[in-house]
Target: 3-oxoacyl-ACP synthase
Amino acid sequence: MTSKIIGVGNYIPSQTITNLFFDQHEFMDESGKALKQDNATIAGKLKEITGIEERRYANKTQVTSDLGFLAAQAAIENADIDPETLDYIIFAHNFGDVHFGTVQSDTVPSIASRVKNLLKIKNNFCVAYDVLFGCPGWIEGMIQAHAFIKSGIAKRCLVIGAETLSRVVDIHDRDSMIYADGAGAAILKLSNDESGIKSHISGSFTLKEKDYLYFGKSYNNDSNPDIKYIKMNGRKIYEFALSNVPGAMKKCLDESGYSIHQLDKIIIHQANEKMDEAIVNRFYQLYDVPVPENIMPMVIHKLGNSSVATIPSLLTMILNNELPQHTIKKGNVVLFASVGAGMNVNAIVYRF
Model:
């Protein structure tokens, strides 16, 4: 007995932001000094390291719960179920609803409660709550839903990952170019056949790594120091990811009972193309086998890093046949993996 995905959906905002958008930004270092390179050089370096050419931003009238609602609607339609039959709505995010032009995060009531309201679900015993787990939040929500289903507490769970990171970036920090907005969702139900979640693993590294991603003041010393923005120590995160994610992926795969040669796809959090490639390379090195072609789909080039939304959005695109080079068929074994603020890591092995 396990749980399986019966529907997926995503919402990719229509506003495309190319690297030219940042051409007039005044980028600074942590001390507030202007960076020596011109913005074209900075953007070129960003593309070289992360692969990002474009990203998507929500429109001015949308907030995170709106994006999550649209992804949830698509997943419910894809699953062809009555939303009143949902037992749980689990919403993974990090910053809540941040309205355009403001700096305040709004999380009361929960974002999951807002989506349940937008879905017009009358069932009071459909439990709606949020998960704050950094970028691995959607996977963690899936793991929690899986536990509810296996224990008999729930029969159907909706897990959403959505974020509007464009609302919490410091425009004077070049790292702001990485972030994007988006939403993805999946519905899980009880499975007694061969498909479903086969293993999972989660970890939180907090002793030394807690502040690799954090909320901090603008790099512009003239800005209000009490207003905080998303900040990261990119080098530390890169080193942490390479040191910890491949081993977690291996442990998860080994516990699933499948071999490295049975793995058909790796759907990894779209954080940084070079970092993701390095993680997957090191993962295969642990088995002393070469990395297969087309094992890791990437859409970060056009969609940027939308945190908790990257994995469910990408999964939906593949299952909807929107990526010609990548398919998932019945019987395929897929490894999901993520790393992010906390520092948290997690993974799932899933058979379709």
